[in-house]
Fold this protein.
Amino acid sequence: MLLREFEFPQGLITVTEVEVDKKLEHARVFVSILPEELGEDAIEALTKRAGHFQHLLNVKMSIRPMPRISFAIDHGPENAARVEKALSKK
C-alpha cells in the first residue's frame, strides 16, 4: 500500500516492523529510510498521510477499532551497518 499510495522520489522507504497494542488502539509503523538524511522529512510526510492510510486499511480490512497509525524511523539497519563497518576495520 505504501508503494502505491506514497511517492517519495528522493529516497527509499521500507516498512521493517509494525507494533500494535493489545487494545488495537495504536499501531506504530517502523520504517527504514535511505538515504538516512531524509528520515525526518519522510516521517513528516508519512504522518501527514496517516489518516489516508488508515482510511485505506479500514476499507480493505475488517478490524474494529482500526488502530491509529503513527510512523517512526527504525534505526536498526543503520546501527547494524555501523557495527559491521567497525568490525571490518579490524
User: Anything to note?
Assistant: The domain at 2-88 is CATH 3.30.300.20 (GMP Synthetase; Chain A, domain 3). The mean pLDDT is 84.
